[in-house]
Amino acid sequence: MMDLSVISIFLTNLIILIGLFIIISLSLNLEYGYAGIPNFGKLLAVAGGAYFVGAASGRILALAYGQPAGLGYIERNLEVVGFLNNSLSSSPLQSIGFLIFSIMGAAFFGGLLGYAASYPAIRLRGDYLAITLLAMGEILWVIGDNWQPFIGGSMGVRIPDPFRWIESQYRPVAVLSTVLLLALMVFLYLEYLGRSPLGRLLKAMRENELSASVHGKDVVRLRTRTLIVGFSIAAVSGALNSLWTVSVSPKDFERVRHTFMPWVMVMIGGAGNNLGAVIGAIIFVTLRELIVFYKYFFEAIAPFDVVWLEYLLMGIALIIVLMYRPEGLLPEKPTRTLSEKRLREIAASASSEKLLEEA
Amino acid sequence: MSIPLLRDAIIFASILTMLSTGLTLTYMTTKVPNFAHGNFAAINAYFTLITAKLLNINPYVGAISGFFLGGAIALLLYLAILKPLLDREASYIILMIATIAYDMILLSIINIVADYLSRAHRITSRLFQLREWGYGVEILGQPSIFIVTPLLAALLVISLYLFLNRTKFGIAMRAAIDNPSLAGTIGINVSLTYAVSWFISGGLAGVGGALAPLHMTCNTDTGTRLLISIFAASIVGGFTNIYGAFLGGFLIGLAEVLGTGYLAINLGSWVVPYRPIIPLILMALTLLFAPQGLTGINWDRVFRGRRA
To answer: Which residues of chain B have a CB within 8 Å of the CB of A304?
Structure first.
């Protein structure tokens, strides 16, 4: 008999993870689904956001409270973070301020990273960009894993907890609501963007770069801006992830989970459709968590770690979708700039005018 | 510069040349950067481990079968996945995603094999090396790996050169690269030439990967780590020129090992883990200033100045 609290912990964790991955896959949908940019460096953005929280925002808070912020922040990490947590737990306002600062800082840092990482290849064909971004993601991992003063090297670093003023039993709910709120905000923003003239321009660029530039659109600038926005959004997910686990460690962010999984989610959900990205995230995070949850059950019958089975399933699922249903589960729909009713009215008046002309 | 460091550099550069040549070859034919190329090599590193430790076969003999295993894995990717997609005129982005998906399947297989080897046969399958073969066995007073790898790389590169220039099929392949529809019109079986290019590419990666554990410590993520160096080598050489891949592979291999070694001597051993930054910087500089790579630069113009 399974304990009820086990199920509720599983569900809260699951929903938080779904929210985090919805943010990532939505950002990829903006880059690939709308603008056609093959960003194989999602890891770079997500880890970048988390690394900002680990390296900068905790230190800035320590500085504000007169605590060691330089090397001492890493060396006396537990002590410093303990002190900061005590201060934060008594002040909801400062906690919320810290939370907002961390998220906005991560978004800014992520955007900067996106600009810098894509700069060498942004003018070239998309495959060069994909290779460059993938390589940059690996390099960020190498730096995070080895450079001690940055985020404590492979040991990682603990960070202050902005949810500490809430009673500990309600903390997961607070994290969950924050994540879902941000996911909703990103969703609404991208839906709005998709319907705006900019959204149509991005799709025009995706369909035919040459014709977009012939019509006077600066394709390189448009691509750069899209990547900056996409990186910022994905960095928010990374920042939230570390604020939830109150630690940043390079091993939490890796290519398969943060670059490949979002691609699977977007391609299977349906590229160019925000709802598809959401559905994709829900399906694959749930699948993954179920495999991890029942790991002990599989472990008894298989002579290997079952996590690898998940890689295999995702790879095969992606290939099948690419070959047999490239538009995904929820295909892209034409975006209407006006409401259905208004469109009907225009059509009706146009046809009556035409009748009058003929008569 | 010490002798062992120079030796390391030449061995690694030879392995990288085999890998980058294959990557460039398939990029030239199917116009897709193959993100699974690193794991073509890694899977063969495990193949060597199995043949040497489980079957007690000399790994140098195993490396020859590595050519066929690597070739078969690459051919499967082309025939089962890329060709159907190409026939449907899928965009190069879709093809790239397909190679990443294949990479993920290979990564999963590599890890399952590694888990199985360590759990069922008690063989060290993570961070393993077979240096007792590469350095323990000597030829002419030198470690055998130092003799075999550069020789094999040179042999493979020269045979590829002869194949592309002196055989009818190789010339047909070059025609299919330059203009697929024209080549098809005059009776060249374009998809056959592409399939052969994938087999050769995977075979080269297979030999490189099979020899890797004799020289360096390999792990399940070796393919992923190597991928940066392979792409850097192909791009620095010029992604659409097979001779550029020879050049780029050797240059990046030397730069990576010698550069890291030189910096480690002068700054301390803490620089060693940052080794992948060297190929990345060289690749970024190439993309910024000469995106066509070294073989794409008009050297006449560089040396003689602008012609009137």
So the answer is: 111-112, 115-116, 119
Separation in Å, CA B150 to CA B71, B83, B223, B263, B303:
21, 34, 21, 25, 32
Residue B308 pLDDT exceeds 50: no
Measured N-to-C along each axis, helices A219-245 and A92-118 cross at an angle, to the nearest 10 degrees, of: 140
Q: In sequence order, which residues have a C-beta less than 8 Å from that of residue B98 and are 6 or more positions away? A: A318, A319, A322, B81, B82, B85
CA A248 centroid distance within chain: 16
The answer, yes or no, to whether residue A225 has pLDDT greater than 90, is yes
- Kindly provide the ipTM of the predicted complex, given to two decimals: 0.91
Give contacts of A 200-229 with B, CB under 8 A: none
For residue range A148-173, list pLDDT tens digits in order.
Answer: 888 888 888 999 999 988 888 889 99
> Please, which residues 112-131 of chain A have a Cβ atom closer than 8 Å to chain B?
119-121, 123-128, 130-131
When CB atoms are compared, the residue of A138, A267, A314 closest to B276 is A138
Spacing of C-alpha B53 from chain mean position: 24
Q: Which two tokens stand for residue A50?
A: 């988390």
Say what the pTM is. Answer: 0.91
Which amino acid makes up residue A75? E
The domain tally of chain B equals 1
A292-311 confidence digits (pLDDT tens): 888 777 777 777 888 888 88
Provide the 3-class DSSP secondary structure of residue A248.
Answer: strand
CA distances for B271 relative to A139, A143, A146, A254, B254, angstroms:
13, 11, 9, 22, 17
- Let me know if residue B208 belongs to a domain: yes
pLDDT of res. B281: 93
A255 touches chain B (CB under 8 A): yes
Q: What is the DSSP letter of A54?
A: I
| Mutant choice from A128, A143, A265 vs B, greatest count of B C-beta within 10 A | A128
Is residue B291 situated within a structural domain?
Answer: no
In the DSSP assignment, the letter for residue B51 is I
Instruction: Output the pLDDT for position B306.
Output: 57
Mean pLDDT over residues B143-155, rounded?
Answer: 89
Residue contact B277–A256, C-beta within 8 A: no
Residue of B nearest to A266 (CA): B97
Query: Would you call B225 exposed, middle or buried from its count of C-beta atoms within 10 A (0-12, 13-18, 19+)?
Result: middle
Considering only CB atoms, B92 lies closest to which of A123, A127, A135, namely A127
The percentage of residues in chain B with a pLDDT greater than 90, rounded to a whole number, is: 65
Set of chain A residues whose Cβ sits within 8 Å of the Cβ of B35: 40, 134
Compute, in degrees rounded to 10, the torsion defined by CA atoms B47, B51, B57, B61: -10
- For B8, the domain range is 3-220
**Cα–Cα distance measured from residue B223 to residue B107, given in angstroms and rounded to the nearest whole number:** 9
- Helix residue ranges per DSSP H, chain A: 4-28, 42-52, 58-64, 71-75, 77-89, 92-118, 126-146, 148-151, 171-195, 197-207, 209-214, 219-245, 255, 261-269, 274-293, 295-299, 307-324, 340-358
Residue owning tokens 């994709």: A280
Among A127, A147, A265, A313, the strongest candidate for a mutation testing the B interface, having the largest count of B CBs within 10 A, is: A127
Q: Are B105 and B88 in contact (CB under 8 A)?
A: no
Residue spans per domain, chain A: 4-253
